[in-house]
């Protein structure tokens, strides 16, 4: 039972469903144009071969006009959906179902007129084939929709003459083939859509890895070069931050502990400068570029990493403000922030801050 349930009611990712929906909407967009143009083309041909317009001729023309109207509505609405990414999934499903029902209802009507004259049900089967080939619906929806349409046609033909001109076995085979065709198409599209989503996610991961530092998760130098374009001609504050005595942390506690300090430093920097671009500039040096918000005025910032040391981890901070107009001016702003950082480090490493005493304690 569980397998049947999964088959009829598959649990799909939202992005996968969106891809399937868009594919069907594109098909409806193009299908409506082709069918509409074909029906319009039949009007002059029909008028040419039918010089006298009797009742049957008017019915035939009405049939064509109705089809053209359906196609125009289908093309306009599908075009609006394609232009608007915010259309809810359920609304798209409803549109697809209504389009299939409207087209099928038209085909049933036309086939009823043909059958009453002793003609074949070519129009009906053609429309259903187009739906199977170009419009994807969830398996349970396909089953309900197909059974409803074929049953409706059969009842109408049965009322006419007991469906005497219809081979019930062949008709049942067509119903089954239509249902299986729609289900197989949907599942095939779902697999392709899932592969597409997986590929996009993989590419996003590669892109993220290419622009971010693997240890801290912050942006890297490559990302900085790409971000420059977004930062010129805007007020920018550049902050340079450096971990005080980071080499001693590595020498005393090991590089694994040093990596932990770098990771925690990245977390602290993102908390300290929210909504800012944060970069690992190199080694234990970090860069923050901020385009709005108050300037952080302190020359140092401290925090604890209990898993590494009981002592505070101290960051020296320097900053510079400006409105760079070019790539070079932005990097000149970063250079000035770096100079400010080293001015800050001279203070935090001074005896008043305990710097020299701390160095002696490490020996």
Question: What is the element layout, followed by pairings?
Answer:
Layout: H1 2-8, H2 14-49, H3 55-83, H4 89-116, H5 122-134, H6 139-161, H7 168-211, H8 221-231, E1 236-243, H9 246-253, H10 255-272, E2 277-282, E3 285-290, E4 300-305, E5 309-322, H11 327-348, H12 355-362
Antiparallel strand pairs: 1-3, 1-5, 2-3, 4-5
Helix pairs in contact: 2-3, 2-4, 2-7, 3-4, 4-5, 4-6, 5-7, 6-7, 9-10
Question: Main traits of this protein?
Answer:
alpha+beta, 2 domains, 5-stranded antiparallel sheet
Outline the structure in words.
Helix content is 68%, strand content 11%. The protein has 363 residues and is of the alpha+beta class. It has twelve helices and five strands. The chain has two domains: 2-206; 221-362, Reverse transcriptase/Diguanylate cyclase domain (Alpha-Beta Plaits, 2-Layer Sandwich). A five-stranded antiparallel sheet has the order 2-3-1-5-4. Strand 4 and strand 5 (309-322) form a beta hairpin. The longest helix has 44 residues, at 168-211.
């Amino acid at each position: 039972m569980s397998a049947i349930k999964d088959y009829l009611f598959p649990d799909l990712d939202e992005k996968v469903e969106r891809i399937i929906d868009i594919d069907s909407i594109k098909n409806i967009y193009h299908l409506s144009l082709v069918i509409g143009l074909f029906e319009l083309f039949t009007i002059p041909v029909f008028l040419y071969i039918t010089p006298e317009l009797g009742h049957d001729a008017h019915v035939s023309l009405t049939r064509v006009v109705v089809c053209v109207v359906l196609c125009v509505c289908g093309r306009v609405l599908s075009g609006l959906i394609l232009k608007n990414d915010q259309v809810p999934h359920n609304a798209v499903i409803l549109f697809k179902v209504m389009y299939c029902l409207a087209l099928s209802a038209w085909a049933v009507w036309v086939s009823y007129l043909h059958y009453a004259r002793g003609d074949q049900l070519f129009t009906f089967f053609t429309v259903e084939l187009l739906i199977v080939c170009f419009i994807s619906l969830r398996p349970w929806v396909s089953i309900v929709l197909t059974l409803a349409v074929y049953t409706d046609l059969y009842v109408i033909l049965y009322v006419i003459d007991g469906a005497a001109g219809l081979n019930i076995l062949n008709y049942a085979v067509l119903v089954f083939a239509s249902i299986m065709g729609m289900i197989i198409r949907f599942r095939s599209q779902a697999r392709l859509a899932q592969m597409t989503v997986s590929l996009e996610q993989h590419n996003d991961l590669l892109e993220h890895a290419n622009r971010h530092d693997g240890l801290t998760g912050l942006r890297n130098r490559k990302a900085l070069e790409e971000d420059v374009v977004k930062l010129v001609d805007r007020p920018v504050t550049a902050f340079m931050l450096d971990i005080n005595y980071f080499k001693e942390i590595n020498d005393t506690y090991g590089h694994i502990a040093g990596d932990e300090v770098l990771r925690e430093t990245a977390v602290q920097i993102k908390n300290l400068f929210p909504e800012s671009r944060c970069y690992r500039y190199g080694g234990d040096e970090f860069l923050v570029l901020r385009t709005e918000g108050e300037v952080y005025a302190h020359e140092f910032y401290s925090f604890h990493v209990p898993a590494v040391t009981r002592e505070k981890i101290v960051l020296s901070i320097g900053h510079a403000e400006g409105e760079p107009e070019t790539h070079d001016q932005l990097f000149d702003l970063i250079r000035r922030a770096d100079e400010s950082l080293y001015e800050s480090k001279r203070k935090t490493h001074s005896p008043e801050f305990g710097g020299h005493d701390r160095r002696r304690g490490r020996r």
